[in-house]
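Researcher: I'm comparing several assemblies side by side, and this is the next one on my list. It has 637 residues spread over two chains. Same procedure as the others: predict the full complex and return the structure.
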Amino acid sequence: MFIESKEVDQGSLVNSDICIIGAGAAGISMAREFVGTSYEVTVLESGGLTPDQKTQSLYTGTNIGLPSFNLETNRLRAFGGTTALWAGHCRPLDSIDFKVRDWMPHSGWPITRADLDPYYERTQPIVELGPYNYEDLGFYLEKTGLKVLSLMPSRLKSVVYNQSPPTRFATTYQEELRRAKNIDVYLHANVLELESNPSSTEVVSARVGCIDGPTFSVSAHVYILATGGMENARLLLLSDSVNPKGLGNEMGLVGRYFMDHLLLRPGADISLTRPDIDLRLYHALHSVQGGKMFSVLASTEKLMQAEKLANFRMHLYRHGPRFTQSLASVFKRIDQNGQVDTNASQSVALHLVLEPIPNPDSRIQLTNNIDILGQRKISVDWKITDSDIKSAHRAFELAGLEFGRLALGRAFGEILNTPDKWPSIMEAGKHHSGTTRMSDQPSTGVVDRNCKVHDIANLYVAGSSVFPTIGYANPTLTIIALALRLADHLKGALR
Amino acid sequence: MSSSLALVSRRAFIKNIIFTTYAASGLGCSFFSPTLDELAKHLSSLLDHPPLVNLIGSAYTTTRRDLGEQTLQATTSLLLNEMGIDNNRFESLSNENIVHTLEQKIRQDFVDENTTVINGWLLSRTEVLLCVLHNKLYPTIT
């Protein structure tokens, strides 16, 4: 059932078993797991069924770090959340992403890829994907007849990516939740604070405010925070009535380790000396067994270990002529054994998606500026390091080496010329993560392996804010897989 | 630019290797070497867009002044050495084989990371040396 919060009585108390705060990919996936169960579930969504400007303004804040993204336009505060904006690229995190990497400070999850595999598999149909098979590229090559680049295993590899339509949760799952008798979705319900007991060991209620409307409270056995990589931290920090540090912030970690993918689109181009090369595997979508897939280039584990690099992927997008003076055209005859189609001029744009190194100094903090609900806004201070730049430069260099080795083309890029300088075209991936990171120890993380906030008995966090590292994969598949895993955990814990 | 490659006689090749050995060693050698020059022309004919070729060649010699100061013959000799072609092999190599060896060397440069960046382009040092050679042959093309 959907309930308009403006029609709720001022000061009323809603009782529930489970209170899910936020109706994006994580919140909706969690709620669906409880449809038809004996649990009463309350979902509190800040926005309505469609976005509105006033609600969206609650996202405003200041960016005092890398000036690479806008806090308001990167996210959507409405039912369905940012799934209304996502591009649909899907891939699980690699096994290595979960491991402690001695060359990457603060790396390592308390769980493994194998722990998440069953949930990744269950996530595939939720976002309308084909078979759960990301490790066997040969399967797709056989099905499609496409050709793969023959890359040096010590450098790069071609990996499988899946493509969601993309699934818009607001439309795809609205009716299911509307019909569910045990699920109440409150629209325009902004959680202002999670109120705790005097010892800050248990949440007792969620205080809810409605723009131009009433305030009311929700009391539940468990609370799941699923408001995104920035707002999860903000709400914990705002919940400071009992403990001025906020909830779950005894160690001062809430809001730290903010991360996003570093994008260079394109960071370099390959001017093809073999314009006839078939790269459709990489730059087009291919239907296989009810799903769509494509491939990208990615770093190998061997490379990362040998050169102490972060994980990365590169999309190959084919273009027509991009250079007024392609120095690569000089070498066409050599690469084509003397047979040259001099009219063809083709290039491939390399779009890099780089894993950032977790950095405790990259953080979200509350400021003294307030939003229209009287809540303190955030500032985001995202810092990158020389190691990040080193990985980015090396990624493009390796691509250039491989295209040259294969006699297919030559690489051009500003970053190749100035390897120590971050190119001005750097963007963020809009994959805000890390601010309530997962760790078995309260000294190094905000939530435990079950996504429960350390030392708070009934508060859980869902979403990319729990990621200790983010690999190169888009986060949605992992966000949903973790939400399904959390739902399973709660079903056991609440029994 | 033509891609056809005339065969170079074994005798001429040997003669020129003797010449280039002297030239490279700095002992000096002033006799005319038409065959080595001819080989330089053949290898240069593999390159397209002469102004761009010379741009690469001249850009590289600004960082490698030693190459800029070399004679054409010495640069040709250096290129052959880079390709791993020695006196003994010359006798058995046709121009096609030399070109094949050049192509393989360029591939290998990308394996070995024997590369350089010219104006933002990641290029093999061997192919860049070939551009230097071209620049010496046709310095007026810009």
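Model: For your comparison table: The mean pLDDT of chain A is 96.
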